[in-house]
Amino acid sequence: MTDASRIRRPGPRLEEVARAAGVSRSTVSRVINEEPYVSTRSREAVHQAILTLGYSPNQAARTLAGSRANAIALVVSEQAGRVLSDPFFAGVLRGVHAELSGRRVQLVLMMSQQGDEQDLISYLVGGHVDGALVISLHGRDPLPLTLSEAGLPLVVGGRPLAGKGVPYVDSDNFNGALEAARHLVSVGRTCIATIAGAKDMAVGMDRLSGWRRGMVEAGRPADLVAYGDFTPESGAAAMRDLLDRNPGIDGVFVAADIMALGALQVLHAHGKRVPDDVAVVGFDDLVSAATSVPPLTTIRQDVEQLGRTMTWRLLGELAGEDGLPPSLLLPTALIKRASA
């Protein structure tokens, strides 16, 4: 995405309306959504603050006029081809759809691409949706903070590197990777490498940190690191790089199953038996992990539950619920199969 300086702030924030009206943010949400249990005095103060500040980017103006979009957006910061082919995104989408089932809320799927940032933002805050789910952020993408400051309720999938205070849901990537490292040590591996995820994503950073913690804990070197971008091709390239650097590698933690599939192909091509010569542990527990050759030992994260929990959190925000957690961390689990 573009730098924050290039994105025009669409208008006053929900917090500014709350301050002007002398009420809480949740009270403003209740008024905007025409929820009960708001005093006449507070309701009038919020309406006046909205008119005075000109707050009208998403649901405020529509609701005061008596209507809502009854739609939310799922925004994926990746190219369309990547989104449609990666089973991770399919799992998140299934979870979102399941949580919306029976609620009469439409889902709009949007794929952010370089150069269309302002059009995307204008659509999202222009009254077409009531809130947004944002996943697969790279770097310090300003999108979450921009949408939050525009007053659009949103939840990010994965820990955002920018936008402090924006609600998010993530899997416990650090401890999952730590468990993978400990497992490789426990099965007697002494030269353990990792194929880490993208350097500009929190998921890649956290899984790399967990693996490094496991290496330090076991008194092993933590320098056998190669990077991929969560594609099979990048996993294959990283595995070739690691074998060139140290042919004696006997264990590897791969930060995503989809990269592990590429790594397995390279190991087979180099005559390495898995797990006899090299033990492999992945992360995600995609369907392909159980059918790979050999079946992949991996760290399971419930991708569908990730989508469901993000949606639950967003719907709670739209309903003006109090006490919603600012962030949620979902547990992971080691699934043992034949590769390690």
Largest sheet: 6 strands, parallel
Structural category is: alpha/beta
Query: What is the tally of helical segments?
Result: 14
Mean pLDDT, all residues:
88
Portion in helices: 40-55%
What's the shape?
A: elongated
Order of helices and strands: HHHHEHHEHEHEEHEHEHEHEHEHEE
> How many angstroms separate the termini?
39 Å
Low-confidence stretches: 1-10, 59-66
Specify Rg, calculated over alpha carbons: 23 Å
Strand proportion = 15-25%
Q: At the fourth CATH level, what is the homologous superfamily of the largest domain?
A: Response regulator
Question: How many runs of DSSP E, i.e. beta strands?
Answer: 12
CATH fold type of the largest domain: Rossmann fold
CATH architecture of the largest domain: 3-Layer(aba) Sandwich
> How many domain regions?
3
- CATH top level label of the largest domain: Alpha Beta
Strand line-up of the largest beta sheet: 2-1-3-4-5-11
